[in-house]
Design a protein that fits this description.
Blueprint: H1 4-7, H2 10-21, H3 27-34, H4 38-50, H5 69-87, H6 98-107, H7 114-124, E1 149-156, E2 166-173, E3 179-185, H8 190-204, E4 210-211, E5 219-222, E6 226-229, E7 234-235, H9 237-240
Parallel strand pairs: 1-4, 4-7
Antiparallel strand pairs: 1-2, 2-3, 5-6
Helix pairs in contact: 5-7
Amino acid sequence: MVQLHKRFSDEQVAFLLQAYEQGLVSRDEVQDALDIKRARFFTLWKQYLDDPEGFSISYQRTTPRKISPASEEAIEKALIREKSLIEDPEIPISGFNYSALRDHLRKQGIDVSVNTIIDRAKKLGCYKPRKQKKAHDREVLTASVGALIKHDGSTHRWSPYAEEKWTLISSIDDYSRMLLFADFFAGETTWAHIQATQAVVETFGLPLRNYVDSLRVFRFVQGRGEKKRVEYGLITEDEISGGL
């Protein structure tokens, strides 16, 4: 039988193990997909739990291959650059992507494993363990498609190469988790939200309710500072905490 690392990539096996961790597939299903026995599964499972980010099924040499000083310098440079992006509050990057760094280095002719990059990252203070999420921790607030559309905007400098911030406006169906709309706008204006909502309604129809934050474009002031909510089924974060 062809060895596991020649039939599957690290990412493919890690994906199956992550699905098993979240309760989406059974152990038997993972074993059938990988064509492995029970003992081999638990060996891989322990290896994944010990280091999910650095998980690898690649064949390990008994004598480690020496990395050239030039390659070591390139790895350090890539890690330091990644760390600067994570620490930049204007860029929405919260953790290291060691697999992406490996692919980036390969384009430069430097072939190193993810484990090697993580080892160097720990020495340079560029290691950030991935947070473990609880299985099925998402709360579904509705019982049918179209009952509630979550609509939100987020303004960031989305790329380290961008010179200015852009606003990402998106709409997602709460029940199905289907992304109904997502696009970038120059700013989070009333008109931008109108355009986004129009696109959703024209494509999918009118939802029962829209869930928005407390941004000023969704509210109006009447009288002496008294806040009134806009009609047409629009609800806010404060209202949704009390139930629908």
